[in-house]
Design brief:
single chain, 206 residues, mainly alpha, Arc Repressor Mutant, subunit A, 3-stranded antiparallel sheet, 10 helices
Length: 206
């Protein structure tokens, strides 16, 4: 099988189009051009074509993975699922994730800490943080270390209460609404109760 011509894709910068006799088209990258020594007029066997296609699929999956991570942080599990959803083979998705981990671009612990910082900073408690880590596919063994970066629950609850009351002492009905809201946000009842008791004491002192 002969290579008739080679040209760069107009749609994807990293893609190279290899036109074979008979009209078959191979979509590869610069890596395949160099590795297989591709050039116009080269005769390649059907076995080489298959190997080219496999290698090109791995290269494209790796490039897609790099673009995904550059666009937004992801856990390893999220990344591999997105790659599979785009048509990547399991082995290629796993290899791409391994490569990104090797170069430091994919780090589940750093990602888990970022998730904890974001949600605790937005006023959510530990139960919500754990739910988010689970939903995002972060390995369970990383949770405790990531959760250590969360601020003290009482500090966060106090901040949330202050943002909701805006300096106005809540009545019993409002305190019940605050309590329900804080529980929905993932705070433990003991912490909510302690914060509301402290709030009540402040009101009495005032």
């Amino acid at each position: 099988m002969r290579v008739e011509r080679i040209e760069r894709s107009k749609r994807k910068q990293e893609r190279v189009l290899v036109h074979l006799e008979g009209g078959e088209l191979l979509k590869v990258t610069e890596d395949e051009l160099l590795r297989f020594g591709l050039h116009a007029g080269l005769d390649i066997s059907p076995e080489t074509v298959v190997e080219l296609q496999k290698h090109a699929a791995r290269s494209e999956t790796r490039a897609r993975a790099a673009n995904m991570i550059a666009a937004r942080p992801l856990s390893r599990k999220e990344l591999q699922k997105r790659l599979r959803d785009k048509g990547a083979a399991d082995a290629d998705a796993e290899a791409a994730a391994d490569w990104l981990e090797d170069i430091g671009a994919l780090d589940d612990l750093a990602y888990a800490r970022a998730v904890v910082r974001h949600y605790s900073g937005s006023g959510y408690g530990e139960a919500k943080l754990r739910d988010e880590l689970r939903r995002r596919g972060v390995a369970r063994e990383l949770w405790d270390e990531a959760l250590e970066t969360a601020p003290d629950a009482q500090e966060t609850i106090t901040r949330v209460i202050a943002s909701k009351t805006k300096g106005i002492a809540p009545d019993e009905k409002e305190r019940k609404k605050l309590s329900d809201m804080l529980l929905r946000r993932g705070f433990a009842w003991r912490d909510v109760k302690a914060a509301l008791l402290a709030l009540g004491a402040e009101i009495e002192e005032g």
